[in-house]
Specification:
Radius of gyration: 28 Å
Largest sheet: 9 strands, mixed
Shape: globular
Structural class: alpha/beta
Strand order of the largest sheet: 5-4-1-6-7-8-11-10-9
Length: about 575
């Protein structure tokens, strides 16, 4: 038995793809993605991963065999029947919540032409969340921490807390949380918010996403809260903001391996004499791949010098290949790539190399290491870890990161990146030129800032912080409020407590939420000696006040002079 605390990571899908070989035989392959990449760096907990198997397994023998095979990978499968899986995953999760959370709006429902109604998708979503909860409960041991991830599982905290109110449950959203004006259009808006608020801790990548969630809760549910915590019907849920990181050491170690060094040499020879702009994304409507290519086309139009000296190497990892809008996106990307190559290509130069496939880890690290620019043009993105992975592999090359302002990573890596609006194609084209021509000194400084961030804000740090907040959440029943005013709410001569300012502030609606309050301000008298200051501070501490001491001349110039004169 391991001495580490158990962490049950719960996500829609397992980090393993399964393929059936026979009645009781399965082939398993580890997958990759933002969450998988992030959690691979978490080492201080004994992890078990719970999620949908991703395949329909209707027979008991198949389920038993797959469960046994997955146990070796420390994975626990959730089995869903085909209709429930379709309406929960392809329906409510990806047809309704995903577009809404990425500002694409709700689908327009035409009942005669729609395969599933909104109500049936919502019912399947609740049913699937209930099945997830049953699997967790069956494997739960006292002291386990249950960490639920993403918009697929918003009802899970509610179902788990109904079973065991003492269970430590956290929920983390890896996408943006939309603004109130967008979120309030969702028919089931209240039910989802109340279910999520049953968690001990709710986490987001950025303060913007957390602020949107808080606004939704206060406006739609009428609850009180701050960016620290929200109170709903006597329960306090802690709000945590912490951007996910990567296991940066894994990348820095990998690029030193002989196999990877060999690949780097091969790639350098293949692209000899050319600058390499790298793009690695899922082929998804929010990733901005068409916008990226169109901006690159504008850059080539305006910069004849670079036409045979730069290449855009873009990977479009297949995603939801059976969905019509994704089929259309694939055609669009191929058409743009073909057009650019026809306009600016030659026998010796192909400006766009577009590949419809994923890429293995070693070649990926090698490409990160030899690229001159990584270009990320997400229209909306919860975080985007490609940016961090690129930085981790660039300590020798010192390439430039161009990063969409609508990716959560922009708030973490903005100091060292060139931050752009991906919908402004001319702005992105100009950023490409700036990156390619950037002086070495500026590249070094930008890389230094980002490399320092990536290597100190790791996946392990992220997990430690979030889980610590989960464990301490029940202690935060009274978030501290520091009220800073020019003077303390005490009498000038007698130090008696006066309630005038206090009573006025208590009329503010936000004070209906119970705060542990501390007042900070000037005491109103000159106390030049240390002994007197110490005595005054001790007396004021009983009134939950913290004095600021100013000398007489400063007080006169500050209060009677600049402030009041």
């Amino acid at each position: 038995m391991s001495g580490k605390q158990r962490l049950l990571v719960v996500s829609n899908s397992l980090p393993v793809s399964a393929k059936r070989l026979g009645e009781d035989s399965w082939s398993l392959e580890m997958g990759m993605g933002g969450l998988v990449s992030g959690l691979m760096g978490v080492k201080d907990f004994e992890q078990r991963w719970i999620g949908w198997a991703g395949v329909n397994v209707p027979d008991g023998a198949g389920q038993k065999a797959l469960t046994a095979a997955l146990a070796e990978k420390k994975c626990i499968p959730v089995f869903l029947d085909e209709d429930t899986a379709n309406q929960y995953f392809n329906g409510y999760s990806n047809n309704i919540l995903w577009p809404l959370f990425h500002y694409l709006g709700l689908p327009q429902e035409d009942r005669p032409a729609t395969k599933w109604s909104y109500e049936s998708q919502f019912a399947a979503y609740q049913k699937a969340n209930r099945i997830f909860a049953d699997v967790i409960i069956n494997h739960y041991e006292e002291g386990d921490i249950v960490w639920c991830h993403d918009f697929h599982l918003m009802f899970l905290p509610k179902y788990l807390k109904e079973y065991n109110s003492n269970m430590k449950v956290g929920w983390f959203l890896h996408t943006p949380f939309p603004s109130l004006e967008v979120y309030r259009t969702l028919p089931s808006r209240s039910e989802l918010l109340r279910a999520v608020l049953m968690a001990d801790s709710v986490g987001f990548h950025t303060h913007d996403f957390a602020r949107n969630f808080l606004n939704a809760c206060t406006s739609i549910l009428g609850v009180q809260g701050t960016l620290e915590a929200i109170e709903d019907q006597g329960r306090v849920t802690r709000i945590t903001v912490c951007a996910i990181g990567i296991d940066s050491e894994r990348f820095t170690r990998t690029i030193e391996l002989p196999e990877v060094q060999k690949l780097m040499k091969e790639f350098k020879e293949e692209f000899s004499g050319k600058k390499v702009i790298l793009g690695v994304e899922r082929l998804d409507t929010i990733k901005g791949i068409p916008e990226k290519m169109q901006a690159f086309e504008i850059f080539l139009e305006e910069n004849e010098y670079w036409r045979d000296k730069v290449v855009l190497l873009q990977f479009g990892v297949p995603s939801r290949t059976d969905v019509p809008i994704y089929k259309k996106l694939k055609r669009q990307v191929h058409e743009i790539a073909g057009r650019i190559n026809a306009r600016f290509g030659s026998l010796s130069a192909v400006p766009v190399h577009y590949l419809d496939r994923s890429i293995d880890f070693y070649p990926l690290c090698a490409l990160y290491a030899i690229s001159d620019v990584t270009l990320i043009t997400s229209l909306w993105d919860g975080m985007n870890l490609v940016s961090s992975e690129f930085v981790a592999c660039q300590d020798s090359k010192r390439g430039v990161l161009i990063l969409s302002e609508f990716a959560g990573a922009a708030q973490a890596l903005g100091a060292g990146a060139i931050v752009v609006n991906p919908r402004s194609l001319t702005e992105v084209a100009a950023a490409i030129g700036r990156a390619l021509d950037m002086p070495a000194e500026e590249r070094d400084e930008r890389h230094r800032l980002n490399f320092e961030y990536v290597t100190t804000h790791t996946a392990q740090n992220w997990a430690d912080f979030i889980i610590s907040n989960m464990c301490d959440a029940n202690l935060v029943t009274e978030p501290r409020l520091l009220v800073v005013f020019k003077t303390l709410p005490v009498g000038r001569d007698s130090w008696s407590f006066e309630m005038d300012l206090v009573s006025r502030l208590m009329e503010v609606k936000e004070f209906e939420f119970k705060f542990e309050t501390r007042w900070i301000g000037c005491g109103g008298v000159n106390v030049p000696d240390e002994a007197g200051q110490k005595a005054v501070a001790a007396a004021l501490a009983e009134k939950k006040c913290i004095p600021v001491f100013l000398d007489e001349d400063t007080t006169d110039h500050y209060y009677n002079g600049y402030c009041n004169y």
